[in-house]
Amino acid sequence: MGFLTGKRALIVGLATDRSIAWGIAQAMHAQGAELAFTHIERMTDRVVPLARTLGSDITFVMDVASDADIDKGFESLRGRWPAFDILVHAVAFAPKEALTGEFISATTRENFQTAHDISSYSLTALARASRPFMKDRHGAIVALSYLGAVRSIPSYNVMGLAKASLEANVRFLAADLGPEGTRVNAISAGPVKTLSAAGIPGFRKMLAHVASTNPLRRNVTLADVGNAAAFLCSDLASGVTGEVLYVDGGFHTVGMSFPAEDAAG
Ligand code: NAD
Q1: Cα 148 from Cα 188, distance rounded (Å)
Q2: Ligand 1: which residues within 6 Å by Cβ?
């Protein structure tokens, strides 16, 4: 029997079988959770078959930038699940031009607003919509962050600010929802090659740098992130809330490190 047996998880942010949401869905399924998925319209043909492979026939379209979509989505979910235990927020977006070149030049009022709306405000909106479903069930919410929330990273630009907002969002939601038994945490994942990550210039270099200098000397996998999310959303983590858990092979803990070939010199 898995440690999520009897739990229901709503997963927001599945696009492909490379998505972090897919790693989380697989890990939660392996631990016995029942799953439901939301996705954007143009990913329907990819998400519906993926959901089926994990035994889920609950999939619906929801653009997190639209209050009407959020209301409609949760209303349709109510017909299948009157309650659930886990909300996974694995959604982020910034226009491509915001992730190119210098932060100071690339950041406009408009792309700042878009990045914060879709990548951070959506967590508040989804937590509010989930609240009546999750109340008093010892459930958990998990969001996906990145080191750019607390350090400057080339090209990550305005997404770093949006992730800082997301991490603050986690702490404020944890304070509001803790008294009714819901925990709220984030995972700050190391770089993983997904559809969104492919939009960040120099992403391959980033992967190579991290793998050659972090303590584990490798990039993290979807399973690494998925298993950590399954743990955080389970009763095994019942005392953990408002936290950012780094799943990055220890990269953020290192002050200085040389790739093996340079270390001898
Ligand atoms: P992904 O492209 O597989 O997933 C991003 C998801 O966001 C997609 O499903 C996309 O459809 C969804 N999305 C974008 N705009 C949306 C909108 N308006 N409404 C609804 N959904 C929308 O990429 P991923 O890397 O798996 O990203 C998942 C999360 O993990 C993001 O928060 C990302 O910032 C975070 N993260 C990624 C990495 C990485 O290196 N890949 C590292 C740390 C954190």
Answers
A1: 9
A2: 13-16, 19-21, 40, 43, 63-65, 90-93, 118, 144, 146, 189, 191-192, 194-197
Q: Any idea which residues carry the catalytic annotation?
A: 146, 156
Q: What is the pLDDT of residue 263?
A: 60
What's the mean pLDDT in 54-71?
A: 98
CA-CA-CA-CA torsion sign (107, 64, 149, 193): negative
| 179 exposure class (CB count in 10 Å sphere: 0-12, 13-18, 19+) | exposed
Q: What is the pLDDT of residue 249?
A: 98
Distance (Å, whole) CA 41 – CA 128 = 23
**Residue 262: per-residue pLDDT:** 67
What is the DSSP-derived secondary structure letter of residue 242? S
Taking the CA of residue 143 as reference, the ligand 1 atom at the shortest distance is 32
| 20 alpha carbon – ligand 1 mean position (Å) | 7
Query: Does residue 265 carry a pLDDT above 70?
Result: no
Query: In whole angstroms, what is the distance from residue 222 CA to residue 22 CA?
Result: 8
Nearest-angstrom CA–CA distance, 71 and 62? 9
Report the residue among 118, 196, 248 best suited for mutation to probe ligand 1: largest number of ligand atoms under 8 A from its CB. Answer: 196
For residue 264, the model assigns a pLDDT of 54
Its pTM stands at 0.97
What are residue 142's DSSP bridge partners? Answer: 88, 185
Whether 199 has a pLDDT exceeding 80, the answer reads: no
